[in-house]
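R.M. (postdoc): so does anyone remember the format we settled on? I'll just put the structure tokens first.
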């Protein structure tokens, strides 16, 4: 089986750095918990371009982006022992080099790095398991009967329960679910 593992807000807690850049840009201070909708940038009165510019600047500062949790390399290795793990991320092309530097710096191993254009649903890709924080990507995958693991974040709290979506608070929990979904060898 193949796993599509997201970067932003699943591995990299990029919102922390995004909020720092936003504060510099706007003079307004926000906490991560206040980012409680997927398209939060609209409620802030930002254009899509402004949002993307702040996002790009956050990734330019990749060394300041913390991991979402401790021991990500070990947990990703655990997933890789079970299945093929690709990094599958929606983003602008200009952020890719910085994301790859961050993954290397964090010692996160993966098979392939797959970039889809920003705002493109990942569910059109051929993966068996999706681990993501985007309600749109997770519902899209679940609607195609793919195993869908939603990484808990403030902006996906209003998502309705779904019979084939698992909500997790950590990548360790996601790995536990993947292990249960993995057919046992006789």
């Amino acid at each position: 089986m193949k796993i599509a593992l997201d970067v932003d807000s699943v591995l990299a807690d990029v919102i922390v750095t995004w909020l720092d850049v936003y504060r510099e840009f706007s003079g307004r201070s926000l906490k991560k918990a206040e980012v409680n909708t997927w398209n939060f940038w609209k409620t802030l009165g930002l254009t899509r371009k402004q949002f993307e510019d702040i996002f790009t600047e956050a990734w330019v500062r990749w060394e300041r982006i913390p991991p979402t949790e401790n021991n990500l390399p070990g947990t990703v290795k655990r997933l890789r022992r079970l299945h093929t793990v690709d990094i599958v991320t929606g983003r602008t092309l200009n952020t890719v080099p910085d994301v790859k530097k961050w993954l290397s710096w964090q010692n996160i191993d993966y098979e392939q790095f797959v970039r889809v254009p920003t705002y493109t649903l990942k569910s059109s890709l051929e993966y068996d398991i999706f681990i993501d924080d985007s309600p749109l990507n997770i519902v899209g995958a679940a609607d195609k009967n793919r195993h869908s693991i939603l990484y808990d974040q403030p902006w996906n709290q209003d998502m309705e329960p779904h019979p084939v979506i698992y909500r997790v608070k950590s990548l360790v929990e996601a790995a536990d679910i993947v292990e249960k979904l993995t057919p046992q060898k006789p």
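R.M.: ...and that's the designed sequence above, right after the tokens. Also worth knowing: Residues 154 and 166 are 16 Å apart (CA to CA). The longest helix spans residues 14-26.
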